[in-house]
Design goal:
Chain A: It comes from Oncorhynchus tshawytscha (Chinook salmon). The complex is a heterodimer of chains A (434) and B (694). Chain A has 20 helices and one strand. By secondary structure, chain A is an all-alpha fold. Chain B is of the alpha+beta class. Chain B contains twelve helices and 27 strands. The chains are: A mainly alpha (434), B alpha+beta (694). Strand 1 of chain A pairs antiparallel with strand 27 of chain B, so a sheet runs across the interface.
Chain lengths: 434, 694
């Protein structure tokens, strides 16, 4: 299995290296879909230039990265850029994580089959080792060869780095190393608050792995939860303090987290925030910022309750929700959750509108640059055109995610109740949500 | 019918009302006239004082005038040893200083004689000492603690335009900052004095400019100013809350000058570290007490001129200010009015300080194109007024006409001719001026009014000396996403390099990237030796970039910097968003090497226009150049649809919320076919009856 992965890595790195040397390398970093004020490489360079001039990078409103991560990124090694390495690292981490996860899934399925827990007509829903064999490779391929990832990488966006940290977090969680998982989760949170919501699925997975039932009365549950929380908060504290000691000021808190939460920069992007808050009435601004930010974190608890047996799918759901509803989304964020889609290809038969959604996503991706050009350069369109496309793009993403969620729930329902359901009168029944 | 009658009644009523209003207005008008008369009567005693001053001076002046002529005749002046000269000057100055203040006539005579003598030695060394005085004024002798001077400089420009520069100086030896309030105002405007003492202002410079000074066509102005409004203030170091004082001060000044200075807030205020040093006395150079702001969009018109004129001791009733008729002043290529308040030395030794209020008005008339092809101008043609008297309160009142390019009278003809000539070193150039002394009745001649007439003989004027320092600025790039600011600085000096300070203030919505800053001259990288950069904060403060660049001789230095255009909230756009946003001028300040020696003694009597920027060394002079302001377009949202956007975005969020909520709260169930309507009704009835359902 190592050989195809190596080949894939070589192909991916070659594509990126070629693009880095082409004329597109100057064009792509300017695209608003690919870079946001949070992760633009230009702004990292600007922060370093400010540091050279003896000005704190957080004194202005250009640099919004947490410092210890981006300062070593200084272009010391131009032959292979850190963003390429980050992509490769993400792909390998996802590959290993999915491989391990598939083993767990297969083992569980085997136990269930041995215990004859599945209805008889569900045999066609059972996953076979043959189809599962290539899934890790497909996941790595989906990540590495996704045009969104490639664009993000060529733009040198630090989004790739965020993705790498999250991928490593998933890998550590799947491997059951609670300390490393907590550290990587803290790192991801420290970079951009939102991965905070991944705390719940990680905890659920680790509990499941240690065969500790989620039970409020059990002391072992509380013991482990406290332990994991402490590890997470402790490492988060260490990182924040490290940032403080590096520049000996707390400016970065408002400049990074304040910037993410209060959305002062309305540069167009593929998200829902920019135009909404550009057109917002001033006295409702705070209210709607609260509503939109709470919206990202809101789904964590109900999803954790609903999916407490399936933490990895919960991780996927959370990453997708973050990348749709976060304040400065870029295509790099989308690429991360799209990489998981091959892992759920057994849900394919239950997806309702995958064709429509994929067509809309493709069309929108093509229309982004077109309408941007019409608005900004040609002047023949206005902001509404671009805004309409971001709306459509987000609707398509929402439909995609909810479709996968539906399919996952439906498959679980079939695995307990049988695939071919009958009505009371014996005729063929249809499943509805009630 | 009733309606008609009603209408007629209404009409009668309205007519009655109108009649009443007109009658009232008439009465008020006559009152105004009466007021004006009473003011005129008020002025009369002061005029007497002025007249008495003049009477002592007239005879000296005629003698001095003779000497001046003499000096002109002398072609080879004797060369005296410089230390001797210095001693002599020193002695004279000491004499002047040690002279007792009381106003005795014999002493005045004596002093005048001494001064003249000193001037005569000066005249002999005209080659060494470029500055020659015309009739000596007597500032140290004035018994009053305040004095007022006015002058008008007219310079025919090479482009065929006429540059007229008014300067009014009020000096006052008082203490604005003592605890007790200054309550007795004579010449100094009270409205301004109160503001200065309330806010503990040490220096205040404010200018309102309409149009852009074309350095390459017109040469250097006496007092540079950027298009729009510029305000910079040094506060006393006793001020604790500088920002608060600045905020209040701008609002008060906005009221005084009828200008939009109240739009100055933290987003356009900066504290330059090196470019705006105090022009007056004082050793506090801590930039914490400095505030600088420019409003490039400000439009200057009559409503700004009227309050400005009211600050003059004579208002616009007498003296040179009579010429300031707004319909003419604003029908010009360039108009700039300014006010500078600062502490200056009282005398040569600088033992005590006096407060100087300088009001300047510069205007460039485009006579060449508006004069129906004839190249001639007169005071009347320019201002549609003539000068009939000096301001009676002024200790000196003069009109200068630049005749440097016309030594033999071959280029143009000036009438009436004046016997007085004066030389002054202005901006590194020695210029010759014809002087009309308005305090001298002879100037006005028989007609009792002075109307200078200048008629060109040659069709074209000679080559202009290229300004040594010159700046340009423009925005490069296309589209509304990014752009690049280019600033070009020209050093036209043939062999001397000199450093310049460049100050750029860019609003926050153009996000500058300092790492893209490049400075190139002659195709090579020119690393600035000093960079002070303060990045912007969104909606809080602008970018401030100051750097010290060495300009190689005879070169163009190009400074480029990339920026990104921000999308603003819809309420942050101006009412005409597609017009664009103004970015204030860059300021280039430099000590330019001078060919002729500069006058370093700032207290010596010299024309006002040549003595604004203090000069520290003889070999160079200070110069400030403002580049063009920029007009930058930003991307705009659609202003007409906030409701639509709020509704649509909320719908998308609701779609996300709804679909997830559905899946989270509901469970899968087998769908049972819903029974028909008749059956459902029957079931309801059966339930009521307690009978098993169908």
């Amino acid at each position: 299995m190592a050989a195809p992965l190596t080949l894939l890595l070589i192909v991916a790195v070659t594509i990126r290296a070629v693009l880095f040397r082409s004329s597109l390398a100057e064009l792509i970093p300017e695209r608003v879909e690919v870079v946001s004020p949070l992760n633009a490489w230009k702004r990292v360079v600007e922060g370093l230039a400010l540091l050279d001039l003896g000005v704190s990078p957080y004194a202005g409103d250009v640099f919004h990265e947490v410092s210890p991560l981006s300062i070593p990124l200084n272009e010391s090694n131009p032959s292979i850029h850190p963003s390429i390495m980050a992509d490769a690292l993400t792909a390998v981490a996802l590959y290993l994580a999915v491989k391990d996860y598939n083993k767990t899934v297969f083992r569980k399925q085997k136990y269930a089959l041995e215990a004859e827990r599945y209805p008889l007509d569900c045999l066609e829903l059972i996953r076979t080792p043959k189809e599962m064999y290539y899934i890790p490779l497909k996941v790595a391929m989906f990540y590495l060869l996704n045009p969104f990832t490639i664009l993000s990488c060529v733009a040198k966006s630090t989004c790739g780095l965020n993705n790498a940290v999250i991928a490593l977090f998933i890998l550590c969680t799947v491997k059951g190393s609670s300390l490393m998982s907590a550290i990587f989760l803290a790192l991801a949170t420290y970079q951009s608050i939102y991965p905070l919501t991944l705390f719940a699925p990680a905890l659920l997975y680790l509990l499941q792995r240690l065969y500790i039932p989620v039970n409020w009365q059990r002391s072992s549950f509380w013991l482990f939860t406290t332990q994991y929380t402490f590890m997470y908060l402790g490492s988060l504290c260490v990182m924040v303090c490290l940032s403080f000691f590096l520049l000996s000021s707390w400016d970065f808190l408002s400049s990074v987290y304040g910037f993410i939460l209060s959305v002062p920069d309305l540069t167009p992007n593929i998200g829902l925030f920019w135009y909404f808050f550009a057109e917002m009435f001033e006295h409702f601004r705070l209210f709607f910022i609260c509503v939109f930010q709470i919206n990202v974190f809101f789904y964590t608890i109900p999803l954790s309750i609903k999916l407490k047996e399936h933490p990895i799918f919960l991780i996927f759901m959370q990453i997708a929700i973050i990348s749709i509803f976060k304040s400065y989304p870029t295509v790099g964020d989308i690429a991360l959750y799209m990489a998981f889609l091959p892992a759920w290809n057994h849900l394919y038969r239950f997806l309702r509108n995958i064709f429509l959604v994929s067509v809309v996503l493709l069309a929108c991706s093509a229309l982004f640059p077109v309408l941007w050009h019409l608005w900004i350069y040609a002047g023949s369109a206005n902001s509404n055109f671009y805004y309409a496309i971001t709306l459509l793009f987000n609707v398509a993403q929402i439909l995609l995610v909810s479709d996968y969620f539906y399919a996952y729930l439906r498959r679980e329902h079939h695995l307990t109740h049988g695939l071919y359901l009958k009505r009371k009168d014996g005729s063929e029944a249809t499943l509805v949500l009630k | 019918m009733a309606a008609h009658r009603c209408n007629i009644f209404m009409l009668v009523f309205v007519l009655c009302g109108l009649t009443y209003v007109f009658v009232r207005a008439d009465i008020e008008d006559t009152n105004h006239v009466k007021d004006a008369e009473s003011v005129a009567v008020d002025i009369a005693p002061k005029a007497n004082i002025g007249a008495s001053l003049r009477s002592t001076k007239t005879e000296d002046q005629t003698q001095a005038a003779e000497e001046e002529r003499q000096w002109e005749a002398e072609t080879n002046p004797a060369d005296a040893p410089s230390d001797n000269k210095a001693d002599h000057v020193h002695d004279t100055m000491q004499n002047l200083d040690s002279r007792p203040a009381p106003y005795a006539k014999d002493q005045t005579q004596e002093a005048a004689e001494e001064e003249r003598q000193w001037e005569a030695t000066e005249v002999k060394e005209a080659d060494r000492v470029p500055d020659t005085m015309q009739t000596p004024d007597v500032p140290p002798l004035t018994p009053a603690k305040d004095q007022f001077q006015e002058e008008l400089v007219i310079r025919p420009l090479h482009s065929g335009d006429i540059y007229a520069s008014f300067q009014f100086r009020t000096m006052w030896d008082t203490d604005f900052l003592r605890g007790s309030k200054v309550s007795h105002y004579r010449l100094f405007p009270k409205s301004l004095g109160q503001v200065i003492s309330k806010f503990s202002v040490r220096e205040l410079h404010i200018s309102f400019t309409q149009g852009y000074w074309r350095t390459m066509q017109w040469g250097q102005p006496f007092l540079p100013s950027p298009p729009g409004a510029e305000l910079w203030v040094w506060f006393q170091d006793t001020v604790t809350d500088v920002d608060g004082a600045w905020k209040e001060l701008t609002n008060v000044l906005s009221g005084i000058f009828c200008a939009s200075l109240n739009f100055i807030d933290s987003t356009n205020t900066v504290q330059p570290s090196a470019s705006f040093k105090p022009l007056g006395l004082g050793n506090v150079t801590d930039q914490r007490f400095l505030r600088y702001a420019v409003l490039p969009r400000e439009i200057v018109c009559t409503e700004n001129l009227t309050p400005w004129k009211k600050l003059l001791p004579c208002g616009s009733k007498a003296g040179l200010a009579v010429l300031m008729k707004s319909e003419k002043l604003f029908h010009s290529s360039f108009h700039s009015q300014a006010l500078h308040f600062r502490p200056v030395c009282q005398d040569w030794k600088c033992k005590s300080t006096v407060w100087e209020l300088r009001q300047t008005l510069n205007v460039v008339f485009d006579l060449h194109t508006s004069g129906q092809g004839k190249r001639e101008w007169s005071l009347f043609k320019m201002f549609s007024r003539t000068v009939t008297e000096a301001c009676p309160l002024a200790s000196s009142s003069k009109v200068y006409v630049d005749v440097t390019d016309n030594p033999q009278g071959e280029l143009f003809e000036l009438s009436p001719t004046t016997p007085l000539l004066s030389q002054a070193v202005v901006l590194g150039d020695r210029r010759t001026y014809s002087v009309y002394d308005l305090t001298n009745q002879a100037t006005f001649g028989q007609t009792r009014s002075l109307n200078m007439l200048l008629r060109w003989r040659a069709a074209e004027s000679g080559d202009m000396l290229r300004p040594l320092l010159h700046g340009e600025r423009y925005v490069a790039g296309y589209g509304l996403q990014t752009g690049e600011i280019h600033t070009l600085m020209y050093n036209n000096h043939p062999y001397r390099a000199f450093p310049v300070l460049l100050l750029d203030t860019v609003p926050w919505y153009l996000r500058l990237y300092i790492h893209t800053l490049t400075v190139t001259s002659k195709g090579r990288d020119n690393k600035p030796s000093y960079i002070h950069y303060q990045p912007s904060k969104d909606r809080l403060r602008p970018h401030l970039l100051e750097m010290l660049v060495q300009l190689p001789p005879n070169s163009v230095t190009e400074v480029t910097m990339q920026f990104e255009r921000a999308l603003l909230k819809w309420t942050e756009y101006t009412p005409d968003p597609n017009h664009g946003f103004y970015v204030g001028s860059s300021v280039i300040s430099a000590l330019v090497p001078s060919v002729v020696a500069m006058d370093t003694n700032s207290t010596r009597e010299c024309p006002l226009f040549s003595s604004f920027f203090p000069c520290k060394e003889e070999s160079s002079y200070f110069m400030r150049v403002y580049t063009e302001p920029l007009l930058v377009n930003l991307p705009t949202p659609d202003f007409s649809m906030p409701y639509n956007v709020i509704c649509l975005t909320c719908t998308v969020v609701a779609v996300g919320y709804g679909s997830l909520y559905n899946l989270l709260t509901r469970t899968f169930q087998v769908e049972e076919p819903s029974p028909g309507l008749a059956k459902r009704l029957a079931n309801i009835i059966r339930r009521l009856r307690g009978v098993p359902l169908l």
